Amino acid sequence: MILHELIEFDTLRVIWWLLLGVLLIGFALTDGFDLGVGALLPFVAKTDTERRVVINTVGPVWEGNQVWFILGGGAIFAAWPSLYAVSFSGFYLAMFVVLAALILRPVAFTYRSKREDTTWRTAWDWALFVGGAVPALIFGVAVGNVLQGVPFRLTDDLWAMYEGGFFGLLNPFALLAGAVSVAMLLQHGAAWLTLKTEGPVSQRARTYGSVAGIVAMAGYALAGVWLLFGIDGYTLVDDVVRNGPSNPLHSEVAKGVSWGASYTARPWIAIAPLLGFVGMAMAMRGLRAGREVSTLLWSKLGIFGVISSVGLTMFPFILPSTIDPRSSLTVWDSSSSHLTLFVMLVVTVIFVPLILLYTAWVYKVLWGKVTEDDVTSNSESLY
Amino acid sequence: MELDIVELSRLQFAMTAMYHFLFVPLTLGLSVLVAIMETVYVMTNRPIWRQMTKFWGSLFGINFVLGVATGITMEFQFGMNWSYYSHYMGDIFGAPLAIEGLMAFFLEATFVGLFFFGWDKLSKRAHLTVTWLVALGSNLSALWILIANGWMQNPVGAEFNPMTMRMEMTSFFEVMFNEVAQAKFVHTVSAGYVTAAVFVLGVSAWYLLKGRHTELARRSISVAASFGLASAVSVVVLGDESGYSATHSQKMKLAAIEAMWHTQPAPASFTLVGFPNREARETHYAIHVPWAMGLIGTRSLTTEIPGIAELVENAEARIRSGIIAYDALTQIRELRDDAPADVVATFEEHSGDLGFAFLLRRYVDDPRDATDKQIAIASNDTVPQVWPLFWAFRFMVALGFGFIATMTYFFFMASFRGMRFPRPALRLAVIMIPAPWIAAELGWFVAEFGRQPWTVDGVLPTAMSVSHLSVSDLLLTLAGFVTLYTVLFVIEMGLMLKYIRKGPYMDVAETDVWTERHTHRLRTHDGKGPFAETPAE
């Protein structure tokens, strides 16, 4: 098969770097709001009926949303196998916590309203809270660690040796990143609830959401300053072969240059953090003013900006190594082979538009608010 | 057993995968059965079929969510626990997993919400389409997962790249149309259909025994028995196809399953039962069926099937060849593009056996330093434990024939004997409910345990595939999974039983037109038509 030669290896690598971003952002935009909704549940809904309203706003869609997460895992495996191998084994216990939370969450959605008794329902409400808040926090913490670099080294056989523990992940910068992530997704969840609910639930969501918006912006600003002035960045030492074999050990990496260098080299990337601030600020104003559709869209723009700012700042690095910079994974040396990237691109180009199309159709069918009346009159069939 | 990383990782993987597969087969089969029921509803407009769709759909939902939840673990566990495997195989193995998400899981998961919540938001036909898309999604999902798994059994369309120290894809089509994968896919999906058919049959039989929801139960039995009969035949026939493809791709697994210690003159006999002894390399008290093995395995009277002893000798030769490959690889890695042509040529000649040299890693750091004794031990390691495979396989096959018999009986009684099931038969149907799950788990056990000591057959030993983790990390997550999964299992079973006991939301009567025609049919058929007046209870 020579068809794949049509697109250069290095171009495919950049495309897959972009697609990795698309997937992570897709995950944050869709599953992000139902993580946020889960984390907001105990605060915005007081009575059982209110809670059912909140749960049913995401009831029919969380399952599809969660596939972004699964697909994220699958796509990293297929396109960036070294990243898949190093990061998930390195963040082993943190990953376990995420998995446990994300296993509880689907079950909580489906089973909660299948029994009347209060203890049962309260227990599942907690599961939804934990299932929303904990992954949101850990994803942020993970990003915070990736920006600082992770303590791993690769042997000559490319065995990944991770030399940090679970608690090493919980350093101040990473926790700040985790807080930003939680606040951002809380705001996103609140924007969703404003659109899908009415009355007191919607009111409370707007209040909590706008506070979360302020926290997210402040935290993001602080993290930005900290990153540029207090954290070591990484650079590739000499010109790397961009279409060479995927072996991270073939390139030399220097540690110590500020990530700010990315902004001097590529000033246009400053647009990403800018969009992050604008989106979050406008979403916060929208929440205060009670605007519905536009608030959700602004919130999405904010998340888009924040996540892209991380990727663009680090480019071409994907996972730097603190203890052995040479082992760092970059766009040029940790991808799949030329053929695999090409095959996966073809599949993605066919299926992602289809997915977006039918997902949009499903949201259209489900358009409209979920009311207390809906829940009480369809008590058997709804969550 | 010493608790090391490899054993603990295997234990955790086996546990989470087998647990995941408690829910998958029912999802696979019930999604199709529910779609069939809804199709009847849309075609005939008889409300009872809508009620059936909703009732079995609600049980589908309770089961489905745990399949989804435990599937999350599967998607990430390769990276968490099998880091070197992920690096080494990701270029090939990751692709079908990602495609599964793109093509299948998105479809299934996006529409399953509408299946439950879209009844009053969609037209009848639109809802039916949604239901079929859920069924299609779950079945396509199985296809891609089995393409991934099939590649672990029979790694085609890939070669080792010394520069990246991993396997890389050379042909996506070979990976996709891998004969092992295709045979496994149809076998697995049929097993799912049988599971759902036995489940629906058993639950309905219980209703008939209790004299509850009889209209729903009878119709469900007629669907389940016909669907189940076709699937049970298919699961056995296609299982045989799997065995046939193993004859040329996984000789050692086949020899172990059949406890074929030594190569026999063709056509080999089939050992029906016996007690395999690995040390003595013989099967005690064996009952043989002459010719049968040769016919099943090769579909010829003249082709030999190699026995374990011969395969071990073969492995020893491949280990020695692998050491040559390893030596050349070491030079190529140091010199990169400047490696001399003859070294590259040597490597290419022997690279297919590189994995066999890695078998020595358990005993010596550098395979080149291995002694003859170590090589002999390593070649013996290529023999999986025989007796568990031998017996697991036989139980699975016996259950398979049991399903065919049960389904044939119920199909016959439903179609030609007016659904007058004797009570013992109904009781048997209830008792049989767990059987397909046992068969499915045994099947996976045979497939995966039989592949040992490899994660990818002949390419990477299991012992080398793990992550660099600590025993305490693994014990912690293992305990965590056991606790979480046990709690969820108890809750799921509780809800399942609660919803089965509760039955459909309310009983729906047949339409007047149907009842009239039916009564007419009963008169003309002398009481032998379907649903005769004397019910089972």
Automatic annotation (TrEMBL), chain A:
Which Pfam families is this protein grouped with?
Cyt_bd_oxida_II
A single BP term in Gene Ontology: aerobic electron transport chain
Q: Which InterPro entries match?
A: Cyt-d_oxidase_su2
Give the membrane topology: Multi-pass membrane protein
**Compartment annotation:** Cell membrane
Which parts of the chain span the membrane according to its record? 15-45, 66-85, 91-111, 123-146, 166-186, 207-229, 265-284, 296-319, 339-363
Coarse class of the protein's main subcellular location: membrane
Q: What is its EC number?
A: 1.10.3.-
Which keywords fit this entry according to its UniProt record?
Cell membrane, Electron transport, Heme, Iron, Membrane, Metal-binding, Oxidoreductase, Transmembrane, Transmembrane helix, Transport
One GO molecular function term of this record is:
metal ion binding
A single cellular component GO annotation:
plasma membrane
Membrane listed as a keyword: yes
As for family, the record states: Belongs to the cytochrome ubiquinol oxidase subunit 2 family.
Q: What is this protein called?
A: Cytochrome d ubiquinol oxidase subunit II
| Organism name | Actibacterium naphthalenivorans
From TrEMBL, chain B:
What Gene Ontology biological process does one annotation of this record name? Answer: aerobic electron transport chain
For the protein in the UniProt heading, the enzyme class is oxidoreductase
Q: Known EC number(s)? A: 1.10.3.-
| Pfam families assigned to the protein according to its UniProt record, in alphabetical order | Cyt_bd_oxida_I
Keywords for the protein's UniProt record, in alphabetical order = Cell inner membrane, Cell membrane, Electron transport, Heme, Iron, Membrane, Metal-binding, Oxidoreductase, Transmembrane, Transmembrane helix, Transport
Please give, as recorded in its UniProt entry, the membrane topology of this protein: Multi-pass membrane protein
Transmembrane stretches in the record are 20-43, 55-74, 94-118, 130-152, 185-209, 221-239, 389-412, 424-447, 474-497
Q: Which GO terms describe its molecular function?
A: electron transfer activity; heme binding; metal ion binding; oxidoreductase activity, acting on diphenols and related substances as donors, oxygen as acceptor
Kindly list the places in or outside the cell where this protein is found, as annotated in its UniProt entry.
Cell inner membrane
Q: Name one GO cellular component term.
A: cytochrome complex
What family, per the record? Belongs to the cytochrome ubiquinol oxidase subunit 1 family.
Q: How is this protein named in the record?
A: Cytochrome d ubiquinol oxidase subunit I
Q: Which organism is it from?
A: Actibacterium naphthalenivorans
What is the organism lineage in this UniProt record? Answer: Bacteria, Pseudomonadati, Pseudomonadota, Alphaproteobacteria, Rhodobacterales
